[in-house]
Description:
Mean pLDDT: 94
Number of strands: 14
CATH superfamily of the largest domain: Fructose-1,6-Bisphosphatase, subunit A, domain 1
Structural class: alpha+beta
Number of domains: 2
Strand order of the largest sheet: 3-4-5-6-7-8-9
Shape: globular
Bound molecules: D-MYO-inositol-1-phosphate
Amino acid sequence: HHINLQDIHDTLVSVAFEAGKMIMAANPNDISQETKMNSADIVTETDQAVEAMISSHLTQKYPSYSFVGEETYIPGKTAITNEPTFIVDPIDGTTNFIHGFPNACVSLGFAVDRIPAVGVVYNPFQDLLYTGILGAGSYMQRNASLPEGSEFKPKRVKLGPGKKLGDLSSALVAVEWGSERKGQNFAIKTRVFQKLTAAKEADLEHHEVGLVGGGSMVHSLRSLGSAALNLCACAAGQVDLYWEGGCYPWDVCAGWCILVEAGGRMVSGNKGGWETQLDSRVYLAVRGAKGGQEEIVKEFWDAIGDEEMV
Ligand code: IPD
């Protein structure tokens, strides 16, 4: 039967604003937190309350669609199926939220046949909204919650391919430490971060007079603490790549739709994986560009080597 993606998008936008109000209403001096896997893996009462609001709203309005949310997911039991499914993170960037670092969002995705079909990502700290609908483009809106017609509300910006991607050495790359602080992914990440940012050997040997050392494999790394906002930054061309291992579908579903509609691509964060799935947990996002996407992906994979994140 027919699924009205525009209607779902409109609903998700209004739910996102509601969630944003709840997030901004939390008193930063008084946020109660619990840890999950370790002290870097945190959930707050606000995460739980926001998810409850979102799920009750969506399951009432769309009772036949499935719902998967970060705070109600049961490891080993909850799976992403081919059914139309809302895939939701009430607060992506919980660590930032606790610290008042203004880069956290509500991430509302909708997938059909496991393909991200609608994405709404809203950062209430900056009143910044990113949206995407499969086949209908993606957009960025500043001062998003102001009423239509307000003189302080700029036009929404359609996202699309930026200039041709250059070499990896000119790329700004988003990465995340994630919430795991040991194990295989952590070891690979830290090794790759160092490799990407250290001065290249060749440049050190042949440096020009007056220059100490040379360039590194990437322009620089950024680690801003929200997978969904990293994907949106990539969709908007603010970073060229985003590399991550250890995320979940609710971290990426919404941003994935927004990225792809902006001409970006999602491939595996492990070498050789031109296809990656919503629940593969290992991703490399590339911004939309008038050329150079495959080349930079190959260059990045070569930099990682043969080790595989899980
Ligand atoms: C986390 C953030 C972080 C990413 C982690 C996620 P949360 O989400 O997106 O940037 O590295 O993998 O779990 O816990 O703040 O919703």
